[in-house]
Amino acid sequence: MAEKPQPVLVLYCQVCGLPAEYCEFGPEFDKCKPWLIQNAPDLYPDLLKAANAKEADKVADQLQSAGISSVDAAAAAGGSSEAKQEEVKRLPGGKIKKKEKQEVVIEKVVRNKRKCITTVKGLELFGVKLSDASKKLGKKFATGASVVKGPNDKEQIDVQGDISYDVVEFITETWPNDFLPK
């Protein structure tokens, strides 16, 4: 004889009321996370890893505020003393200051579903005059090109049209010596 099917036991979230499998699609997933970590860790293993990583970061911050780096702590615990200590500049609020990389960024921005603007950022870091570059780009591709201020108050070149593939070749041919490491 065939066995009777057993009823399925569903675990409902105490915060949002949805089944625990569907909490991530609910409106209050951030509020549900602590409850899910405690009551359903097998459903969301990434949350458990993230919680453990946050605890490790808190411990590292406490050690650093006490003047002990995690490398020093590992060496004191019998770890390798050859581990390299990395200098990191921390700003108020715990933010880490990054060095500005010298790179040229080319982006294609789509507007009105059909029109494109190609944005070229970072040419000034290599000593290229943006006004001259915009004139050359405009002539080469027979489009409008202008120097504008970007979202972070840095100047960039906006070129009308989708020329993102051709502009790379044009820049490297026009200014070949400016992009070589010195």
Automatic annotation (TrEMBL):
GO terms for biological process: formation of translation preinitiation complex; translation reinitiation. Pfam families: DENR_N (PF21023), SUI1 (PF01253). The keyword Cytoplasm applies. Keywords: Cytoplasm, Ribonucleoprotein, Ribosomal protein. The keyword Ribosomal protein applies. GO terms for molecular function: mRNA binding; translation initiation factor activity. GO terms for cellular component: cytoplasm; ribonucleoprotein complex; ribosome. Residues 104-175 form the SUI1 domain. SUPFAM superfamilies: eIF1-like (SSF55159). It is found in: Cytoplasm. Its main location: cytoplasm. Gene3D superfamilies: SUI1-like domain. The SUI1 domain may be involved in RNA binding. Belongs to the DENR family. Interacts with the 40S ribosomal subunit. This is Translation machinery-associated protein 22. It comes from Durio zibethinus.
